[in-house]
């Protein structure tokens, strides 16, 4: 691996973590997704085409890892570590400030979106990819990205608006 490619991968890590967190809804699952994606990417560097976008390639790997994980969970069921289950306060301590409360509301609302809408929204609204770039990562037409974004934004507005009114 070249030093340049290694630096680029390291520089991408925060964006990859944000995307993985957005589609999985969990920091732990998101970090696991990123680690799995890095393992896959490093073992398949020969498949990366020089001159193409490394971020799109990595987003695509994360998306595929998430799809695989979702399928495994459906087959095996959710695995819970009993020792860690009682350690969380479910974010109550972190939601003291109003902005943290709104962020938590948006995160919960995003988790309620269908997976395809959540991925499109994360790539465009959080990661700043263009519709065309998001379509490439998700391997769908640009019009489908636009449709998913429209539905995701409308649903998020419906889910967040009542909470915002209740906080005022």
Morphology: globular
Main sheet specs: none
Distance between the termini: 53 Å
- Helix-strand sequence: HHHHHHHH
Discrete helix count: 8
Count the strands? 0
Count structural domains. 2
Structural class: mainly alpha
CATH superfamily caption of the largest domain: RNA polymerase sigma factor, region 2, helix turn helix motif
Low-confidence stretches: none
Rounded radius of gyration (Å): 17 Å
Helix content: over 70%
Structure description:
It is built from eight helices and no strands. It has 168 residues and is mainly alpha-helical. The protein has two domains: 1-88, RNA polymerase sigma factor, region 2, helix turn helix motif (Rna Polymerase Sigma Factor, Chain: A, Orthogonal Bundle), CATH 1.10.1740; 90-168, Arc Repressor Mutant, subunit A (Orthogonal Bundle). Helix 7 (131-138) crosses helix 8. The mean pLDDT is 83.
Task: Describe the protein's topology.
Blueprint lengths: L2 H22 L2 H17 L10 H23 L5 H4 L12 H15 L2 H12 L4 H8 L3 H26 L1
Please summarize what this structure is.
With 168 residues, the chain is mostly helical.
List keywords for this structure.
168 residues, mainly alpha, single chain, Arc Repressor Mutant, subunit A, 2 domains, Rna Polymerase Sigma Factor, Chain: A, 8 helices
